[in-house]
Amino acid sequence: MAQEANPFESLQEQIDDAAAYLDVRDDVIERLKNPERVLETNLAVEMDDGDVELFRAYRSQFNGDRGPYKGGIRYHPNVSRDEVKALSGWMVYKCAVVDIPYGGGKGGIVIDPKAYSESELERITRSFAKELRPLIGESRDIPAPDVNTGQREMNWIKDTYETLENTTAPGVITGKALSNGGSEGRVEATGRSTMLTAREAFDYLGRDIEGATVAVQGYGNAGSVTAKLIEDLGATVVAVSDSSGGVYDPDGLDTRAVKGFKNETGTVSDYEGTEAITNEELLTLDVDLLVPAALENAIDGELAHDVNADVVVEAANGPLTPDADDVLTEREVHVFPDILANAGGVTVSYFEWVQNRQRFYWTEQRVNDELERVIVDAFEELVDAYETHDLPNFRTAAYVVAIRRVVDSYDSAGNWP
Ligand code: NAD
Question: Which of 318, 338, 358 is a domain's end point?
Fold first, then answer.
């Protein structure tokens, strides 16, 4: 089997691909391909049985030209320095493509959270928050949830930070519970932007989303919300999966019922009246729309030859390797990139932060309306760049728009010292 792509190298390749269409100096591009700083730390945490266990953790601050660093915190056994660097870089260009005033950051702990009790996870999270304290802050670096973290962890981090700083600073982190300074609409925001991107993409391509068949890989926050909202548009979700495998029903799944089943049993597998399929089978199904919503590198150059979908909208970060991108571009499969399609998460995180700083809270309707405006505007700018510069694919178009914005900020501020 081919060696798995290094996500940091994938990010750098994506930047190079777009830079070829931009009139920007090589030294400036080089700077945009590397993080400003990376914290690597080892958390020594007492377990329930009294033993102390060590956990490797990272925070990468990639680029702050357009505002405070912003990006999630992931708990996963495969977290690595390069993965965190890549994810923090994607955040820079994601915030730029939707034009919100943030730079990019990302963090993670090397851990399988399922193997620990809630009290252990709380101590691990608070220990990480203590290490992060000098780096983060409402105007400095604002973490958020990512894979295997959610409102619970965000609440712990906010509380640890506020306690140590002896202040109230709800805007130090986003994705919090509503009762703790969170925003309406945040939980569904990532899936909502994926749905909006798919809707706009189908419209642009002259295709009907109503009646379109859809497969979704990964049924966590991003995947399950995308599936639900796309079903609400009249599409037929025929297959979904998680890390235990997938389920298929050519007549369409009831996405809410599947989510309820996963909440009860921990997996989508064995949902009644469906056929079991592997993740690879799901990714190669003959559908109108494929939504990878799990992790990086789901589709490599080899598998890309077998993808049968006409349109791919990326809910996950980095689900396609650069080789897969080349193959799908060649095969004229339209890929709408992660940095636009899942930008709803960070956009509503931005709204949450604005509300926290103003101590003035919006209705869910206002959040959803503002999000729709941001994603539709960004989609139009992406298509405009794609057509104006005659670009090979929509990913390159997104990076052309985003890099231009970061370079404009950098140029107008100047280099110092
Ligand atoms: P999550 O933990 O809620 O869900 C992840 C899902 O992927 C789970 O259902 C898991 O079982 C499944 N999965 C893991 N490995 C898999 C595999 N090999 N095959 C199939 N399924 C697999 O995480 P999430 O927040 O939904 O994040 C998913 C992706 O979306 C990540 O790439 C993340 O960076 C990205 N993302 C999330 C947000 C957000 O706000 N949550 C925002 C932007 C991007």
Answer: 338
* CA gap 393, 337 in Å, rounded: 9
pTM for this prediction: 0.97
Which of left, alpha, beta for 274 (phi over 0: left; psi -120 to 50: alpha)? beta
Residue 275 CB contacts under 8 Å (≥ 6 apart), including other chains: 247, 248, 249
Same structural domain, 277 and 245? yes
Supply the CATH number for residue 87's domain. Answer: 3.40.50.10860
Residues having CB closer than 6 A to ligand 1 are 145-148, 190, 217-223, 241-243, 279, 293-295, 315-317, 342, 345
Residues 199 and 329 both lie in one domain? yes
Mutate to test the pocket of ligand 1, among 197, 291, 295 (most ligand atoms within 8 A of CB): 295
pLDDT at 415: 87
Is there a single domain that holds both residue 224 and residue 319?
yes
158 is catalytic: no
Measured CA to CA, the distance from residue 40 to residue 9 in angstroms comes to 19
Averages of pLDDT over each 10 residues, the chain, 417 residues? 83 97 96 98 98 98 98 98 98 98 98 98 98 98 96 98 98 97 97 98 98 98 97 98 97 98 97 97 98 97 98 97 97 98 98 98 98 98 98 98 98 90
What pLDDT shows up at residue 416? 86
Residue 2 DSSP class: P
Q: What is the pLDDT of residue 1?
A: 44
Same domain assignment for residues 91 and 202: no
Range of the domain at 77: 36-168
Tally of structural domains, the chain: 2
Sheet of strand 275-277, all strands in order from the earlier edge strand to the far edge: 275-277, 245-248, 236-242, 213-217, 289-292, 311-313, 334-336
pLDDT given for residue 2 in this prediction: 55
Helix (H) or strand (E) holding 111: none
CA-nearest of 262, 183, 259 to 228 is: 259
